[in-house]
Amino acid sequence: MSRGSFLYGVWSLAIVSGFLAASIFGYSPFADGGRSAVVAGVYGPSHK
Amino acid sequence: MATEPPPLPPLTPVASAAAGPAPAVKSLACPNCGGTIELRAAGYTVTLICQYCSSVLDVANPDVQIITRYNEESQRLAIPLGTRGTLKGVEWEAIGFLRRSENGSYPWDEYLLFNPYHGYRWLVTDGRGWTFGTMLTAEPEPGFDGLRVGGEAYKSFFAHGRAQVDYVLGEFYWRVAVGEEVETADYVRPGWMLSFEGNAQERNWTLGELLDGNEAAFGFAMAPQRWRPGGRPPLAHQISPYAASAGTAFKLALAAVAALFVILLLFGGSRASKSYDFNVRSDAGAASATIGPITLDRAFQAVTISAQAPGLENAWVDLDYALVNRKTQESFEAYGIAERYSGRDSDGDWTEGDRSATTKLAMVPAGDYDLMVDASGQRWAYSGSNGSTVTITVASGGRFWSNFFLALILLIVPPIFMLWRHARFEAARMGESDQGSALASLISQDDDE
Question: Among B83-97, B151-165, B250-264, B269-283, which stretch is predicted with the lowest mean pLDDT?
Fold first, then answer.
């Protein structure tokens, strides 16, 4: 296995581990909690 | 760079022990300078260059006549003639050196190696790597888009060229002279090159294996030599250093993505949901409701809040949530909106919005909670519905697809980068070929027009 492949293997392991930890603890940087209400003026359809 | 050598059982070296008695070393006196010269392959060698005065001697003639005298200065060779080294498990002695070029351009060096039991081999370099060449005794067979040798296919790379000898030193098995020209053609497969050289008198085929950078260096005690990115284009038969890495990376990426799906299935579900229905009217102000208790038993978990408003039409419902811990009064706030619009214009009927809204809270600690909901309905147009029943469902757990796609991007980007480097390497390699040159000239013509 080349050095690049090994490093990518470590990288993949880190990503999968991070995803597992986030799934166990219910974490997401994109969660809705704390988001403020939509400001006035953006209600309604954006159709045309 | 591991390459499988092609099976070459029918091919034998041009000169071998089987062809005759092992040649003996013989000493000669140079008729020009008087220096003592060793003839290492007596009986095979026909031309010998004096190492002291660079005179070319015809050793096939018993009188050893001087054919030509060179005035060029002797060069310092990477492998001094007479050096012995081991390649492919056989000890070879460098006995001849040629510097050749295409009409003075693209020079390369060829060392003639000799072993009394294995015959002659070539060690060829142009500074980007070493190729170990074995002369073939049979013509290659024609194949699709190239030639075949030992069951392996070789694609045409340089269809036609002309090589000339610019400098010569040492012993050879033919009468070599500066200025000697031959027609050339090269065919390649990764790690291997099949080279043709011929003129009106003879045709020669040589099968060259690209050596690992260290192999020739260790064999002949030289500094390692290998192609490096960013400099000259790769060799015609060079194996992409990125191909194996990219292939392995894609396999690892596939396994990692499969692991993501498994984790998503095992840990992404929601549990213990509670629902509450209430009517929201646009002319009656905000409606409030409290849903609870909601028990969260894990140390940390996501909380999913879903709202369904099936009666919405050209209206929306603002939903403010506060998930409050009964014990600590810690509050987690979030917001959602259910909306639905429709109409008709010159393109026909259209609809927009979603009557359901899903809101997810991240990392909520364990405890008993109440979900406090404030909902206010609004009409977008006079035709809008004046109210709708809103069903709020709250559950512990939930799938964050955003996490999944973020992980997917982080996993896929490196292999794509490796693939791009491999493609760039191959483009640079093929750019040197006749096809690449033809393409380049075609592009150049288009640019001129």
Answer: B269-283
What pLDDT score does B42 carry?
Answer: 74
pLDDT of residue B386: 75
Q: How large is the average pLDDT for residues B260-271?
A: 86
* B212 vs B236, residue with greater confidence: B236
What is the average per-residue pLDDT within B15-29? Answer: 59
Phi and psi torsions of B433, nearest 5°? -80, 175
Nearest to A44 among B298, B320, B380 (CB): B380
Q: Does B20 touch chain A (CB under 8 A)?
A: no
Is the CATH code 2.60.120.380 the one for domain B271-398? yes
Q: For residue B70, what pLDDT is reported?
A: 37
Domain boundaries, chain B: 75-219, 271-398
Identify the residue among A2, A5, A35, A42 best suited for mutation to test binding to B, counting B beta carbons within 10 A and taking the highest: A5
In B, which residues are within 8 Å of A23 by CB distance? 263-264, 266-268, 400, 403
- Note whether A29 contacts B: Cβ–Cβ < 8 A: yes
B245 close to A (CB below 8 A): yes
Per-residue confidence band for B13, with pLDDT thresholds at 50, 70 and 90:
very low
- Of the two residues B67 and B345, the one the predictor is more confident about is B345
Contact A12 B334 (CB under 8 A): no
CA angle A36, A37, A40 (to 5 degrees): 130
* ipTM for the whole complex: 0.84
- What does the pLDDT read at residue B444? 54
C-beta atoms of B415 and A5 within 8 A: no
More confident call, B28 vs B240:
B240
